[in-house]
Amino acid sequence: MVSKSFIVDLNKPLVFQVGHLGEAYDEWVHQPIVSKEGPRFFANDICELFTRTVWWVIPLIWLPVVCWLVTMSVQLGLTPSQAALAVVGGIFIWTLMEYSLHRFLFHMKTTSYWGNTLHYLLHGCHHKHPMDGLRLVFPPVATAILCVPFWTIVRLLTTPATAPALFGGILLGYVTYDVTHYYLHHGKPSKRLTQSLKKYHLSHHFRAQTTGFGITSSLWDRVFGTFPSKNGAGRIS
């Protein structure tokens, strides 16, 4: 049985506490604590280490992989222009993936112990502690695991020569997403475009969390009617 009066102790590792919140989890996780110092997740130091990732690790690891994938497509017979077109197609596919994953997976409603626990690890921790800079980008080990099914799908649906460059474009879109996401939280944009993106994303965190699911682009929010309204109307959930 889940205790309705359960209170999370922020001074203790959080991951195995949040599941006990039951139906109260959704309200709790969407009441942000604005601090650059993040909480401890696990009592075990090794598990804790794998939850922390500095932002520059993402391009350092994945951009060489993108280059290797594009090179592979050229070696398999694509012309440079065809490979470039496949990369652009992959980036476009990523924008829809970014929106869909954020809206339907990262913001799914959970009430069970393990549902709450997994959701907190996946995305809830970011909404609870939005300024925790070491838990803002996706850990490379988790990304590598998730790449396997997506790579399999791309390989099944496209030609052997096209698949690497197309997947490279998706991966490049992901890198752009993670780096942009970090910048929107911790950077100080001076250009109109980046200022607009920052305002658009912070609206998702602090005004209406049922809108603004895009990070690098507001395209799909506009298409599917989830672009934040100017007056900030929208249920916080």
Structural description of this entry:
The protein has one domain. Helices cover 59% and strands 0% of the residues. Helix 4 runs antiparallel to helix 8 and helix 7 runs antiparallel to helix 8. It is globular. The two termini are 24 Å apart.
Give the uncertain stretches in residue-range form: 233-237
Q: How much beta, percentage-wise?
A: under 5%
Give the helix/strand class: mainly alpha
Give Rg in angstroms.
19 Å
- Residues in helix, %: 55-70%
Q: Tell me, what's the shape? A: globular
Average predicted confidence as pLDDT: 93
- SSE string, helix = H, strand = E? HHHHHHHHHH
| DSSP strand tally | 0
Q: Top keywords for this entry?
A:
single chain; 237 residues; disordered C terminus
Write the topology of this structure:
Elements: H1 15-18, H2 25-29, H3 45-49, H4 57-75, H5 80-105, H6 113-128, H7 140-157, H8 162-186, H9 192-206, H10 219-224
Helix pairs in contact: 4-8, 5-8, 7-8
What would you say about this model in short?
With 237 residues, this protein is mainly alpha-helical.
